[in-house]
Amino acid sequence: MKKNLILPSIVFAFALMSFASVLSLKIKGSDTLLPLSQKWAERFMKSNPGSKITVTGGGSGVGISAIIDGTTDIAQSSRPMKMDEKMKLQEAGKAVKEVVVAYDALAVITNPSNPVKKMTREQIEGIFTGKITNWKQVGGQDAKIVAYSRESSSGTYEFFKDNVLAKKNYASSCLLMPATGAIVQSVSQTAGAIAYVGLAYLTNKVHAVGISYDKGKTFIEPTSENAKNKSYPVTRKLYYYFLTKSEKTYKPLIDFILSAEGQKIVDEVGYVSLK
Fold first, then answer.
1. pLDDT tens, N- to C-terminus, the chain (275 residues)
2. How distant, in Å, are the alpha carbons of 117, 194, 212, 223, 225 from that of 218?
3. Distance CA 59, CA 219 (A)
C-alpha cells in the first residue's frame, strides 16, 4: 500500500515542478535588449515546453509605460526608471521590482568608407548638438555629417545624452529613428553618417569608432572585453522591471537569466555578462 502511495506522490511532485516553470508572459521595451531577451525566451521555452514568452521592442519608455498601464508583464529597459514613472506606479498602487540582467557598451558608428576612425567625446558632442556639421572639422573629408539618433522614448537616447553629450540637447538636424536595426542599415548605406548603438548591434557593415574621454590622450575601442575590464567609458546596466506581486510567478525565468547558462547567453549574443 505504501509503495502505491509513494509513486503517485512522486508523479504529483514532478508535475508541480513542471507547472512552476510553465510561463505565459509578455516582455516589452528597450530595442537594445531585444536580441538578448529574444534569445533568453527562446532557450527558456525550449527547456520548459508549454511556456509562451513574447518579446517586442519600441523603446525603454514604451516598455515602462506598458508596465504602468498593465499591458505588459515585464518591461525591459536600458536606463533606470525615472522618478515620474515611479510616482505613476505609486499612484496606481503598484510596487515594482528592478533586476539588473546584463551590461552593455554603447558604440558610436560610422560608415566603413569614412577615414575618421577615432574621436574625442567633445567631438562627438559637437556633432550631435549641431556645432560640428562637416567631417573636415574632425580630420575627415569635406563632406556633410548626417547624424542618426534613436527617438526620445529610447533609453539609449537618454543615456547617450546624459553620458556623451554632457546633458546637452540634440541638434534639430539629427534624424530620429524608431529602431536600432534601422539605424545600422542607414549608416551602412550613407557615406557621411554617424550614430550610436548597443554593442550587440555591431556588424561589419558599420565601423565602431574608438572614443577618448581624456581629450585625445587615449582612444578605447567598444568591445566586450573593454567593457568588462571597464576601460571603455560608455557602459551601462540593462534592466528588467515587473510588479513585485508577480515576483514568484516570474522567478523561474529570472533565475534562468541570472544563472551561469543565462549569463553565458549574454556573452554569446554580444553583451556583457554580470560576472
1. 444 544 444 444 444 344 447 899 999 999 999 999 999 999 999 999 999 999 999 999 999 999 999 999 999 999 999 999 999 999 999 999 999 999 999 999 999 999 999 999 999 999 999 999 999 999 999 999 999 999 999 999 999 999 999 999 999 999 999 999 999 999 999 999 999 999 999 999 999 999 999 999 999 999 989 998 989 999 999 999 999 999 999 999 999 999 999 999 999 999 999 98
2. 13, 21, 6, 15, 17
3. 30
Note whether 55 and 37 are within 8 A (CB): yes
Which residue segments constitute the domains of the chain, with CATH numbers given? Answer: 2-103+237-269 (3.40.190.10), 105-228 (3.40.190.10)
The C-alpha cell of 71 is what? 499591458
Q: In terms of DSSP bridges, do strands 193-198 and 74-77 run parallel, antiparallel, or are they unpaired?
A: unpaired
**How far apart (Å, rounded) are the C-alpha atoms in residues 61 and 46?**
30
Q: Quick one: cell of 225? A: 572585453
| Among 266, 210, 251, 207, residue whose Cα is nearest residue 233 | 210
Instruction: Please state the pTM of the whole predicted model.
Output: 0.85
